[in-house]
TrEMBL record:
Pfam families per the UniProt record, alphabetical: RNase_T
Organism: Pseudomonas psychrophila
SMART domains, A to Z: EXOIII (SM00479)
Keywords: Exonuclease, Hydrolase, Nuclease
InterPro entries given in the database record: Ribonucl_H, RNaseH-like_sf, RNaseH_sf
Listed name of the protein: DNA polymerase-3 subunit epsilon
Amino acid sequence: MSLLSWLLPRKKPVLSLEQHERLMRLPPATELGDTPMRTQRWVVVDLETSGLNLNRDQVLSIGAVVIEDGAIDFSQAFERTLLRPDNPLSPSMLLHELGPAAIAAGSDPADALLDFMAFVGDSPVLAFHAPFDQHMLTRALKDSLGYRLQHPFLDVAGMAPMLCPQVNQREAGLDQWINHFNLQVEDRHNASADALATAELALILFSRARTQGIDTPQALQQRLNQWQRRKQMHSF
């Protein structure tokens, strides 16, 4: 990305009247509260992207499931491919199994993102390596909708070593934690499957949190923030 592109103002996305009305109906985000963790509705999300560059790469697909009443609610699931039929295939699309059929069924990014934010509602979001997903989703929402994402994101990749300090998995990826807890995952590198695996891992971690006296979403967020600050201090 050139310096000139940073200096030039971004063009506002052009939305249809229907899209604008849907955007205005989206509920505002709420902060994590002090109600029991079990009563919180969580949206567990996984993004498939064209690469790992935070400023250049694009969101290809979104998969999400819901944790509610202490369990995964399989009646609440989300999956969209953010591609138009004329998008060319790339190696990253093939890696994520986004072949011609998926591309042909792809949604306009603005419509897909509106669908997703309606699905999220005012719920907090969980993700494995959440800062990456949060950044990519924030940029996609701003570019396609002019929408400012303000929902709380909690990082399952940080929760796992924090709540399981006896496990030597501090820098482990999702696959390593899946194997450690013997989770049965049918597929990987697919947004919906990865979101489901992350949700299953999160439920185990929520149980560990309660045994450690962490009973509310707010307390979990505070403990995670403290743990991450200590980790950063020890890295210097």
